[in-house]
Amino acid sequence: MAVLLSTKPAVMEEWRAALLALDPTLDIRLYPEVGAPQDIEAAICWTSHDLADLRRYPRLRLLISMGAGVDHLLRPPGPPPGVAVARLKDELLTTAMGEWVLLNVLRFHRQDLEYRDQQRQRIWRELPAPETARRRVGFLGLGELGAHAAGLCRSLGFPVLGWTRTPRSLPGVECFHGPEGLAAMLPRCDILVCLLPLTPQTRGILNARTLSLLPRGAYVINGARGGHVVDADLLAALESGQVAAAALDVFDPEPLPPDHPYWTHPRVIVTPHAASITIPRSVAPQVVENLVRLREGRPLIHLVDLARGY
Ligand code: OXD
User: Fold this and answer.
1) What is the pTM of this model?
2) Euclidean distance between CA atoms 219 and 105, whole angstroms
3) Residues whose beta carbon lies within 6 Å of some atom of ligand 1
């Protein structure tokens, strides 16, 4: 069984080595050197892979994302019919995202942007003392990543709220769901964190209407996908002071174009899709597990519900 591997050239070899370390019999073909298309039965792909190319492999049965997200594999034209899609669930990915969220929640909560600004101007001035128990942190998405980050905020004493598409309950988190739930939660979020999967339903969820429902001067943190944000609406909300600042790790498109206003905006923190980077050595066991299951005709793990989109 041959496996196609397609990702950034810089990490291709690291991926191959991590997989071969667990199963030296794997026949891994580094895209675009795929050999005979009919050999390929599984493909491990990151965002740049052209989905039309996947139609060249008549025996392809499994497509594995190289991250927690799978939107890059479901965008039109989607995976070839009959091909299963699996995502990664990895403790290191979850931990890293939790750290990035916490970094930015604390940055905003502790007025770090303001103090950096004061330092640049040599201004010695105390700002009003921040109170953890009064800073409400709302999460859009309580999946693997959202639930973990929400728990971290909770453990520090922030009141935590969470919104999901369908009802969900999580200890210590005030949960909301559906469109009415979203409208009810947003006015109560001093800091809003987006960790949703990107689907047709969640695309553009951070827009003029939803941002206007936040309390004035709220903060926005997006570690999910750039497609969740309507950039012009967020920039307008920053301009008007409706949103006090934003931390953004993801953009549409990526890389963020050099002339994009986010780069130089004094109230926007930009990181280059680096909040939670997949470490091949850490995820290789579950990838190999799925390849072995595929070979043996056993049920696959971490499968994505294609109709739901995550
Ligand atoms: C992921 C990501 O999907 O890094 O894991 O964005």
Assistant:
1) 0.96
2) 9
3) 67-69, 93, 276, 278
